[in-house]
Amino acid sequence: MDTVSLTQNLSNALIEIVKTGIVLTDAEGIIRFANNMASELFGYERGFFKGKPINMLFLPDDIHILVPNIMKITRLGNSFEGEVLLRKNDGNKFFVNLSTALYKSDSNGNELIIFTMQDITYLKNMEKEHMGTERFVSLGMMTDRISHQIRNPIVSIGGFALRL
């Protein structure tokens, strides 16, 4: 096997085994490729994405503003990175860390936009639990302060009552 074939085979294998969803679109947002993890993340069968618009992965509210802005930012040569709520085949929503990059595929200037997605639903749930725990800690501290503020005058009143 020559070096070019080996490199190509290795690249293909890496794209398929990473635990990150990878979707390639043309400049108009039509999906040209999606790896196994992308199919798994969204609950579609392998090969389903090809020829479909990237919009299908986003929530309806995000299709008119967020997606065009992500595409524009990326086409201008900048990358986008952020937490985005996307939708699965069954309609359920899930959080991903979304990153984009521009790739000029040939000397004619054809461009591909690379979307990488990592499911962060577990992290978001942990964040919610942590926020709930912090609220309980704050509530406990507030209760302690209030009881302290009430206890001091009551102790003084009790002392005066004993003297009387």
Q: Can you describe what's shown?
A:
This protein is 46% helix and 23% strand. The chain is α+β, with helices and mostly antiparallel strands. It has a five-stranded antiparallel sheet. Strand 4 (93-104) and strand 5 form a beta hairpin. The chain is elongated and about 100 Å long.
Which labels suit this protein?
23% strand, 4 helices, elongated, 164 residues
Name the helix and strand elements from N-terminus to C-terminus, one letter apiece.
Answer: HEEHHEEEH
Number of helical regions: 4
Rg to the nearest angstrom? Answer: 27 Å
List low-pLDDT spans.
Answer: none
Please identify the structural class as seen in this structure.
Answer: alpha+beta
Query: How many strands, what sense, and barrel or not for the largest sheet?
Result: 5 strands, antiparallel
Shape: elongated
Share of helical residues: 40-55%
Beta-strand content estimate: 15-25%
Number of strands: 5
Give the termini distance in whole angstroms.
Answer: 103 Å
Strand order of the largest sheet: 2-1-5-4-3
Q: Mean of residue pLDDT?
A: 82
**Multimeric organization:** single chain
